[in-house]
Amino acid sequence: MNELAGVLSPYLRQHAQNPVAWRQWSAAALAEAAERDVPVLISVGYSTCHWCHVMAHESFEDKTVADAINSRFVAIKVDREERPDLDAVYMQATMAITGQGGWPMTVFAFPDGTPFFAGTYFPKTHFLRLLDAVHTAWTTQREELAHQGAAIVEASARSGPAFADVTVACPLDGPCPPAPPIRTELLDAAAATTMASADGVNGGFGGAPKFPSVPALRFLCDAYVRTGDERLLGHVRLTAERMARGGIYDQLEGGFARYSVDAAWTVPHFEKMLYDNAELLWLYSRLYGEDALFARVADETAAFLLERFSTEEGAFAAAFDADTDGVEGLTYVWTAAELESVLGEDAAWAAEAFGVDLANPNFEHGANVLELPRDPRESARWEAARHRLLAARRGRPQPGRDDKVVAAWNGLAIAALAEYASRTGHRDSLLAAEQAAELLRRVHIGADGRLARVSLGGAASEAPGILEDYAAVALGFLRLGGDWTARAQGLIEQIREHFTDFEGGFYDTAADAEVLVTRPADVHDGPTASGWALAAAAMLEAFQVTGDETYKDDAWRAVARAEPVMAANPRFTAGLHAVAEALVRAQRAELSTGRYPQGTPSYPQARTFCCRSTTGHVVVDSKKAIRLLRDGGDRRGFANVAIPRPRAGTHPRAVPAGAASSMETRVAGPGPGHPQEPHTSRIGCRITLAAVT
């Protein structure tokens, strides 16, 4: 019997009417598999995933497939956004088996959760053959499957990061010695490696599919501040401009899609995630004074968060779907006839302004994704066309929204909105950030200080928070300042108590969390910085706010512990490299005047800004700005806050085309599928389910 109808997760509820007898992940479901002596089928996805919808329609809604599953397996559905711990464990196994990963993720496991085969999306005919092959192997090759499962778990553990020993010997009768300085040669090498994969024509890194990769851009910002290397800042500007002009950015309403399916940012994968828009709001807020384009994108992205992502309870929803009525991008694309029906005689002019070649559509079925190749010569006419097209688009069927509140992503949104407010004086953004923080305090944080991962409709899920939740929410609270600082410190104490490995590093799950086949601990970034990097960043910021040296020491140990992994794979550990850059700035400031760069008194006022002015580097006193806003001030109250403005005639510098390469590591599911971006290695399997191919 399908038990998903009454659950909290919107993704699981999407499968409540399937003929598959789906269960939630639970000890009872695993016990049922043991009692029936059948393997477990674990299907992992999320509500806005296009290929998850495709596999659901092709296979999970089909009675023949459902009968094959129900009779021979216990079927478990997992929302990866609600249970990222399960997603991490089984994604590591999937990538160890296949060398690839993505969603939907399809895993076959023993009743104790040990995986023995995995993949991603399978078309219906292949999936039926796979079910038969797994059933045959289970009944005739059980011992071989057990060996294979053990090998996968061992390989998953072995493929984990090799961490450094950073034990510090402290004398019994005195303070511990100061932390050694961060090696700047490590940071220089990381910047060079990151730039080696930079696309000097289109911005970003590598080829298609292309992700915003904000952690890498953040690191280049920080490395530029330390080195003055204009190529680093130039690539950040180039990437920001190309994304702002591409189809990955919604040219009518604002907000960014998840990634681009091509290298030129033209055709997006249309889902819109809270974490992407929060991270990109941070980026464009930092570039606010550079160019009118960057300022407009920051303004529109902030407005998009407040108007479209806000929930009734006061926080921010998780995502908007890629599909509308089962068709990817249906809401967003335009045929020539549709443009003409809305704009009439302005259609041809608008098509040119939006980069539409009516003779060669850039999307499927004669439709087009709108871009902005250059600033329009008639800005008022362009704005009028935008408004008319957006009004018409709002009359179309709209993509679904996943309304669940994810703690980590709301923490990132709070931090980004606070940053944007401090740059612009936009008080509504600060109020929205504080309102979201209040919901997290009231609903997600329990009386014991522990944090729930998700909530829906003001009710928290039983799924516990993981490292990234505690760290991102702590960072958001610290950016708000005031009374939120003490609450952030409470979350950091929870990290210290429940997530540390006692050698300077962190696990992704708490020490008292459910025991899985492995306990994940990963320093590699995804679309956001790793939980490890976010925890280190929160601790460093707590030091800068409170002056408590133990926070800085913990941040240093987190970086030092991960140094071997950072050196081996700098492109995907950019989050920790950014923390290392901040530690270098802190150490240099302490060794000189005790003040931070450009004469600012503390780190919060000296965070990296990728902007220039006629006087060189300019920073914004963000804490002072937020105090003014909280006290009811407006933009005129920012007389003593330095807001950078561009020099006349200046433009972002592009990296030479010769700097681009294809070194970026990407992985995707077999055939169609929803890709992800982590570093991986592959192992061989002892059992080959030949019937699948």
From TrEMBL:
InterPro entries: 6-hairpin_glycosidase_sf, Ssp411, Ssp411-like_TRX, Thioredoxin-like_sf
Region: Disordered, residue numbers: 644-683
Protein's GO biological process: carbohydrate metabolic process
Signal peptide start-end: none
Coiled-coil region: none
Entries under CDD domains matching the protein: SSP411 (cd02955)
Domain Spermatogenesis-associated protein 20-like TRX: 2-154
PANTHER family per the UniProt record, alphabetical: SPERMATOGENESIS-ASSOCIATED PROTEIN 20
Protein name per Swiss-Prot or TrEMBL: Membrane protein
Organism for this UniProt entry: Glycomyces algeriensis
